[in-house]
Design brief:
Blueprint: E1 9-12, H1 18-29, E2 33-38, H2 41-54, E3 60-64, H3 70-79, E4 85-88, H4 103-131, E5 134-139, H5 152-168, H6 172-175, E6 179-186, H7 192-205, H8 209-218, H9 228-239, E7 250-253
Parallel strand pairs: 1-2, 1-4, 2-3, 4-5, 5-6, 6-7
Helix pairs in contact: 1-2, 1-9, 4-5, 7-8
């Protein structure tokens, strides 16, 4: 199926590795030009080179910087001729015990995982609406629906973003102009982030990370962790021209792990 993304421009945050990189790759395969961001320039340039090899006709621009800062956001937006697609993504805050987190730690988590996506949405959606096409995907976490005890910072900050998006996505001046805003909620995907979470969970349970990982896989009906590539493919589908009637939704990708109906 042609997703209708050829020639579009996408800004993909935290795209040097993991789920962000997979989303950028899926979009490039659909003929989408991309601006990718990450804090580390070396890894970002390496990923940009890989993406250019997928389709020489596509433009791939790399802008290094911490997207949680105003300066990095301004640089990324300036590099993108127009933002047709915005993929909000940021490394999650560290796991731990809430008793150890002071106000500064909480504010950093909220700034990176709630306020930064909102700032980027604010900077792009009106122009999307004026052009009659826009897709915003926020990569949040399956913990929004099924909180993980050691990820309290993520649980809180990402839930705040989820509540904000629920109202914004339903505004007629956006939804009525073919601008959709949806959240992708990854469960256990085989990424660096997951390995850190497994190590923390294993330490708390008195198990090695390998033992804890085996226990975690056993609790997933699919009996495995997800791959970044399949996550990227779903992201591209939600960005497609065919997805214009899907907005304000939380799409959970977790191999069936969440036991609820809603």
């Amino acid at each position: 199926m042609d997703l209708g993304l050829n020639g579009r421009w996408a800004l993909v945050c935290a795209a040097s590795k993991g789920l962000g990189a997979a989303c950028a790759e899926a979009l490039v395969r659909e003929g989408c030009n991309v601006v990718i961001t990450a804090r580390g320039m070396a890894a970002l340039e390496e990923k940009a080179t890989e993406l250019r090899l997928l389709d020489p006709a596509v433009q791939v621009l790399a802008v290094a910087g911490d997207i949680a800062t105003p300066e990095a956001r301004a640089a990324a937006l300036a590099a993108c001729p127009q933002v047709d697609i915005l993929i909000n993504n940021a490394g999650g805050p560290p796991p731990g015990d809430f008793r150890d987190w002071d106000r500064a730690v909480w504010l950093a988590a909220i700034d990176a995982n709630m306020l930064t996506p909102i700032e980027l949405i604010k900077a792009t959606v009106d122009a999307m609406a004026a052009r009659g096409f826009g897709r915003v995907i926020n990569i949040t976490s399956g913990a929004v629906k099924a909180p993980i005890d050691v990820l309290g910072l993520s649980n809180g900050a990402r839930s705040g973003l989820t509540g904000f998006v629920a109202g914004l996505a339903r505004q007629s001046n956006l939804a009525g102009r073919n601008v959709t805003i949806n959240n992708l909620l990854p469960g256990a995907f085989d990424t660096e982030r997951l390995h850190k979470t497994l190590a923390a969970g294993g330490a708390k349970a008195g198990l090695s990370s390998e033992e804890f990982a085996a226990r975690r896989r056993a609790g997933i009906p699919a009996q495995r962790f997800g791959s970044a590539a399949e996550f990227g493919a779903i992201c591209a589908m939600l960005c497609s021209q065919q997805a214009g009637y899907l907005t304000g939704q939380n799409i959970l990708l977790d191999g069936g792990a969440y036991p609820g109906v809603y």
